[in-house]
Amino acid sequence: MELHNSHQQELIAEDQQGSVLSLDRDKEFNVNRKFYIESYGCQMNFSDSEIVAAILNQEGFGSTRNIEEADMIFINTCSIREKAEESVRKRLKDFRPLKKHKPELTIGVLGCMAERLKSKFLEEEQLVDIVAGPDAYRDLPNLLKKAEDGDKGINVFLSREETYADISPMRLDENGVTAFISIMRGCDNMCSFCVVPFTRGRERSRSSYTIVSEATDLFMRGYREVTLLGQNVDSYKWLNPETNEITNFAQLLEMVAKVNPLLRVRFSTSHPKDITDEVLNTMAQNPNICKYIHLPVQSGSSRILELMNRTYDREWYKNRIQAIRQIIPDCVVSSDIITGFCTETTADHQETLNMMEWANYSMSYMFYYSERPGTPAAKKLKDDVPLEIKKARLNEIIRLQNQISHRHNQSEIGKTFEVLIEGNSKRSTDMFKGRNSQNKMIVFQKKAHYKAGDYVMVKIESASSATLMGSIVN
Ligand code: 5AD
Ligand code: SF4
C-alpha cells in the first residue's frame, strides 16, 4: 500500500444542502444537522472521506468547515505506522471539551484504525460513539441512528464486492481543477510489513464505466486533472458481467485519457511486480497521461525485499526502470523507502542508497520501519534494528534524496513546460502554482487572463529541492 498524504489536513465540504431535492421527514430534520470530517493517512483515505460526505449528504445532513458548529465529527484514520495512530489518539483528546460542551455531539472513527481496533476502540476511547471500517460507510446513517438512541454503533465488516461504484463523491477541499477517482479497493499483496490487507480487505476493482463517467462529469464541471487511485493500480481488472470481457489497467488508462485531450490523467500507486510494458506504451501514446510514475522500491537489497515479500528483487526493479526510460524517455519516477527493516545490515542500507542514486528519484517518501501488530513481519521476524540506527539511516536517506531532488530540479532550469494552473501559490496571491506532466510543482508570476484550470507554457528560471520557479512564455 503506497498512497500518501502525509500531512493532516482538514477536509472541508462545501455546503450542498441546496442540492438536496426531495427530502423525506428524516432528511428534513437532518438538514439542520451538520457533519465535519477530518482525514489522516493516504490519498485513498481522503478520497473515502468524499464518499462518506456524499452518503451523509444524501441523507440530508449538511456539512461544515467549522468544528465548533458540528453535530457530528468524523475522523478518518490511518494505521500504517504507529505514529499515524498516535496522532489520531492525540486529536481525539481535542474533541473531549467539545463533547463536554455539547453532550449530543456524535463522534465517529472511520477508516483503517477503526478496522484494526474494532470494538476495542469503544472500550479504550469512551467518547467515541461510532466505529466504521472502510467498507461500512453505506451503513453510517443507520449507525448514526443507533448512536442517537444511546447505543454505540459499530460496523467493521469487510466486503469482497463494495467499491462504492454508484456514489458520486462530494468533492472536499477542492480547487476545482484536480480530483481523485478511486478505481479499486483493498490489497492482495501481503507485503510482510503492511497492515493494509488487514484494514482494507481483499482487492476488488470498480466498473470501468462508472470510472469513465465520473471522469467525464468532472471534466464537464471544469476539472482538468484526475488521479486514478488504488493500492496497486497495475492489478486493476474488471470483468464486465454482461459481455464477460476484462478491462485491465492499461485499457482503463486509455479509456480515461480519451475522455478529453485537455483532461490530464495520473495514477497512484504502481507496484514494480505488476507494471507492464502495455501500461508504459499506453502512457507513451497518450500525451495527456502524465509522465510520472510513483514506483516504490522499499529497499535496494534483494535479501530484504524477499523478507518484505515484495516478490521482486533488485534486478527486476532495475529492469522496470530501464523499460520506463526506454519507452517513455521523459518520464520521472519517485519512490517509497523503508529503512531499518528486520535484519537490515549496513550493507543492505548501502544498497538502498545506491539504488536511490541509480534510479534518480525526483522525490521519495521515506520512513523507518514501524512494526504493526498482526502483520506477517510482526509474527515471523524480529524487529531487531535499534531505533537509533533506524533514525541514523533514515537521516542519511533523507539527506541523499534532498541532494538528488536538488540536482534533478537544477537540471530543469532553462527548460519550458506545459503547466496546469491549480490556483494561487501558498506564499503570494500574485503567483500561481501548478504542475508539469512530471508532477513537479512550479510557481510563477500571474499574467492577465490566465486562471486556475488553464494550461500555460512556463520557462524555468530557478529551483530548490522542492519547487521550480519560472515565468509564463508565449
Ligand atoms: N513501517 C514503515 N513504513 C511503512 N510503510 C508501510 N508499512 C510500513 C511500516 N510498517 C510505508 C511503505 C509504503 C508507504 C505507504 O508506507 O513505504 O509504501
Ligand atoms: Fe491509507 Fe489505511 Fe494504509 Fe493508512 S493504513 S496509508 S489510511 S490504506
Can you describe this structure in just a few lines?
The chain is of the alpha/beta class and 474 residues long. It has 15 helices and 22 strands.
Salient structural properties:
5-stranded mixed β-barrel; binds iron/sulfur cluster; binds 5'-deoxyadenosine; Rossmann fold; single chain; globular; 3 domains; 22 strands; 7-stranded mixed sheet; pyruvate-formate lyase- activating enzyme; about 475 residues; alpha/beta
The whole-angstrom Rg is: 23 Å
Low-pLDDT sequence parts: 5-23
The hetero compounds bound to this protein are: 5'-deoxyadenosine, iron/sulfur cluster
Q: State the major sheet.
A: 7 strands, mixed
Count of alpha/pi helices: 15
Mean pLDDT: 93
Helix content: 25-40%
Overall spatial form: globular
Q: How far is the N terminus from the C terminus? A: 41 Å
* Superfamily (CATH H level) name of the largest domain: tm_1862 like domain
Structural class: alpha/beta
CATH architecture of the largest domain: Alpha-Beta Horseshoe
Q: Briefly note the CATH topology name of the largest domain.
A: pyruvate-formate lyase- activating enzyme
Count up the domains.
Answer: 3
Strand content: 15-25%
Q: Which CATH class of the largest domain?
A: Alpha Beta
Question: What features would you describe in this structure?
Answer:
- The protein has 474 residues and is α/β, with parallel strands linked by helices.
- The chain folds into 3 domains: 9-155, Rossmann fold (3-Layer(aba) Sandwich), CATH 3.40.50; 178-410, pyruvate-formate lyase- activating enzyme; 416-473, OB fold (Dihydrolipoamide Acetyltransferase, E2P) (Beta Barrel).
- It contains 15 helices and 22 strands.
- The chain has helices at residues 25-30, 43-58, 82-101, 112-117, 120-124, 140-148, 196-200, 208-220, 249-257, 277-285, 302-307, 314-327, 346-359, 376-380, 387-410; strands spanning 9-11, 34-39, 62-63, 72-77, 106-111, 130-132, 153-155, 178-182, 184-185, 204-205, 225-229, 237-239, 246-248, 264-268, 292-294, 332-339, 364-368, 416-424, 431-435, 441-445, 455-463, 468-473.
- Strands 1, 2, 3, 4, 5, 6 and 7 form a 7-stranded mixed sheet that branches. It has a 5-stranded mixed barrel with strand order 18-19-20-22-21.
- It starts with 8 loop residues before the first strand and ends with a strand.
- Bound molecules: 5'-deoxyadenosine and iron/sulfur cluster.
- Iron/sulfur cluster (SF4) binds at residues 1, 3, 41-42, 44-45, 78-80, 111-112, 195-196, 199-200.
